[in-house]
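## retry 2 of 3
previous attempt timed out at serialization; input unchanged, resubmitting
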Amino acid sequence: MDARAMPVLMVRLSPGQKAFMEECKTFGEKYDHEMINSFYNYWAQENRSGRKMLFEMQKTWNTAMRLKNWENRSYQYDNEAAKLRLERAKAKGKTTGSSAENAAEQKAIAAQREAADAKREAEMEEARKNSISFEEYAKTHPDSPLAKMRGK
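## retry succeeded, writing output
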């Protein structure tokens, strides 16, 4: 569908939702827009009373680390989907090239995935070292929109 033809939905956001959206937008250079939107849409869900968002009900919260996990899981699901497509293509006999070429290609892909996984794991470990609980963040940043929102 052409982006110009897509309908625009007007939604009123609470001050807390706006603050959370602004925080998510700060990661726009590191992650793609679509991923940040899906992350925001999931974590900004309100509880039944409409007083808290899902992320506010977590015991601890670190947006940077949660986004990294979100990216890793989407990468994992994308890989699983790719493996399933490859298996289906093999079952239908649609693979091309010799078996040696396919094996070499699969080994190269596996090596790339392992390197990417190791890099992500190192980044996650670094993020874990730098994470603090939401309460600690609120104490050290009392003027932040998230701390103000949590105090309400």
